[in-house]
Amino acid sequence: MSNLNYQEKIPNNVDLSNDLSLQRALEHWQPKFKSWWNDMGPDGFQSYDVYLRTAVSVDAAGWASYGKVKMPEYRWGIFLADQVKDKKIHFGDNIGKPVWQQVPGDYRSVLRRLIVTQGDTEPASVEQQRMLGKTCPSLFDLRNLFQVNVEEGRHLWAMVYLLHAYFGRDGREEAESLLERNSGDQDNPRILGTFNEPISDWVSFFMFTYFTDRDGKYQLKSLAESSFDPLARTCQFMLTEEAHHMQVGESGITRMIERTLEKMKELKTDSVDNIRNAGAVDLVTIQKYINFWFSSSLDLFGSEISTNAATAFANGLKGRPDEFRYNDHSEKNTLFDIEAFENGKLINKKVPMRNAMNEITRQAYVDDCNIGIKRWNRLIKKYGYEEYSLALPSTKFRRNIGVWANLSINPKGEFINQDIYNRKLASWLPSENDKKFINSLMIQELDPSKTASWITKPRRGINNQEIDYSYVDLN
Ligand SMILES: [Fe+2]
Ligand SMILES: [Fe+2]
To answer: What is the CATH number for 156?
Structure first.
């Protein structure tokens, strides 16, 4: 197991000090990253000590240490999972050949694009979340926000390392651009749609970490299979960190629903107004936030039927999440059943399996999203509300990319008249009024023993600390 070297300016386990030109190039990028962090990172909390975890090993067990650190002094570094000796390509057309330690010339631009697209999402989410500290429901949540933020910063480092180390001058230019695009910027936005959506309240933050970070998990899982070994090893370690982000989302949504159910029970009501007046978020509104973030995240997987996806699989650049689960790793002449909409008609057809890789990944993602939904519905039942449930909208609802893009389909997945769709769409998503209400709940709570009205206290503290431990020192 390789230990992480924290003696150097850039912590790493890639033997950076033995590659002076690479080290110099990254040390040149480092102050630009720091100034981006200061300008675009968490607003207003940069000078406080935050209880954060930092990677100390890439071993799955005990890989992080915890301690108080000011965010700008966080030790962002370059950590790859350990190399497996004699590793062979395990899917696509080149099964059995050695994995690549360098980028094959033919795949250079496609690989660079994959890395840039992944890399772009990392700082984007930090930018999207930068104002949330001002409305944190507790110090515990504030710390979790910052933990997610510094790790997204580290994920940017992970991708920038690959660009610098393997893509020469193009890579260095792409690394600069990753700090120049900004989420929501009119002229120079982030690459993918969801990463330009504002995250201006904590309900959106929890939904984003549940749904959109989970998209990240599935993208990373696909890239962790890559025949380009440095990319695979980079993504394998990123997945270890990523799990926490989704955990923040799931537990945040659970605690919000718990408070709602407590209020429903206490007041013996399901009236939206009464629940809202009691300072909790009604289930109808929670469903709307699910509809918004889930449907937006689905587009990140790309078109259901895609020749790009087929080529990336055939060439061994991007596999399926958990490729080991499948029996056939070549899928050369196999077919996949897919629903599509052609000539105004809903049809079922067979497409080459390789062309359906985006859809296969998306379906694995949807199954994963449903785990939380089931848990939340169990919680609702536990409180005695048999008649209520939350649900994922249909994967055909509100899509902008692929087979279902721009069609009049309701959250149940039914085609409806376009006028009715246009009229009803707003009612399926958070309205201005809903957002106003949510914002009215977003009152900053900095007393370590308190939690905002709309969410229950967490069950457990972080790293065995008390729940009301001072996770961020404000003086
Ligand atoms: Fe990330
Ligand atoms: Fe993440």
So the answer is: 1.10.620.20
Residue 15 burial class via C-beta count within 10 angstroms: exposed 0-12, middle 13-18, buried 19 and up: exposed
What separation in Å is there between the alpha carbon of 335 and the centre of ligand 2?
A: 33
pLDDT in tens, 104-143: 999 999 999 999 999 999 999 999 999 999 999 999 999 9
Report the number of distinct structural domains present in the chain: 1
Total-model pTM: 0.97
Distances, alpha carbon 373 to alpha carbons 203, 207, 287, 380, 381, in Å? 15, 12, 10, 11, 12
Q: How far is the CA of 341 from the centre of ligand 2 (A)?
A: 33
Distance 382 CA to ligand 1 centre (A): 34
How far apart are the CA of 122 and the centre of ligand 2, in A?
Answer: 7
388 located within any domain: yes
How do residues 288-307 score in pLDDT, each as one tens digit? 999 999 999 999 999 999 99
What is the Å distance from ligand 1's center to 296 Cα?
17
Residues with CB under 5 A from ligand 1 (ion): 122, 152, 155
